[in-house]
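Appendix B. Extra example for self-study. Work through it before the problem class; the solution is given directly after the inputs so you can check yourself.
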Amino acid sequence: MTRRFVFTLVLLACLAVGLFCVAYPIYVIRPFRHQGARELAVALVVTRFRPAITVIAAIAAVLAVAGYWRVKARRWKRVLTAVGAVLAVVLAVLARVNVYELMFHPLVHPSFTAAADVKLDGVEKVVAVRVGGEARAYPVRSMSYHHVVNDVVGGAAIVATY
Amino acid sequence: MWRREIDGLRLTFHLAGINNQNFIMRDEETGTYWQQISGAAISGPLKGRQLTLVHSDELTLATWKSEAPQGTVLNDVAEFTSDYAKPDWDVRMKRAPTVLNFPGYDLAARDLMLGIQAFGASRGFLYERVIKEKLVKDHVGSEPVLLVVGADEQSVRAFRDRIPGIEGAADFYRITGKPSGALLLDAATGSEWNFQGCAISGKAKGLCLEPVPMLKDYWFDWRNYNPKTTVYGK
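Solution. Structure tokens for the complete assembly:
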């Protein structure tokens, strides 16, 4: 087994790990697809650990390419391995991105208006809570977009979901 | 609705995924993933923990304002307002495909249900049927419950069908057209009760029925997370 072959093998393994970490959760946790309990559990574990895993894979890929470049090789092969290393780094960056967290906009610092000053029509649906004597209403029209509102009502930290 | 504190740690939630069309939340403090409908931690450092339910009601704004004139309402966020649900949102959602279907109860996957998970049992009530009947007297597990439709004929609340201090289930009847806002009359004490479940006249005046948490949800989602649910009238 030549050193070049070993470096190539390490690079391909790193790319495979990176691709799996990025693609598998997207494949499993996509809308309008049935999620099985086991595959979802695996996808969530991968999502949790992939930032670290893909960084390790990217570093290993860069080191493998550096090693490859020290060995005599054709120029196009060197360029190809460099592209592979760049791809491993890109995958490490993508692994830090959750598509859902980009698409949806939960509220972390919500603001409110007194009931008497609200302009919405009376037939609008709201989800209402009363905590510690304080009453809060979340209109369904906006909750069905934001889905998650991190709030404090009556001194209690709650998350309103819809 | 959930309390977002675990062991004194305040959590900040984001929408991080989907599990058979019920969304998954991630808290940024621990990186744990939580199922929205159940409040259960399904993956991560807090796996197995459970958020505490906060009682909520789905009401019309007019009904809520009449009960909570001092309350506050979530503001729109200007940059997203154009994406908020349009008036026909319910109708459009009804046509959206589902990945789960549970035949056997003669219910469509996206039929809207009022689900109660209490007293060691789960029971679903078809929303349209409750609206039509206006007052539903039923049981969840062995506990008698009431589902009451508000004067707006859209808002629904559930209560334990027991008057504090009175043995057995109370015998409630629906009344309408009362300027006092009374919606129910009970045969046991002859008292009138409002939509908040509180007696506003009669021997029971000042007493309130115990609210029962209820979730408005699509049939497929309710059934998926409540596999042993029974269905009212089925």
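Self-check: Chain A has two domains: 3-103, 115-161. If your reasoning did not lead you there, revisit section 3.
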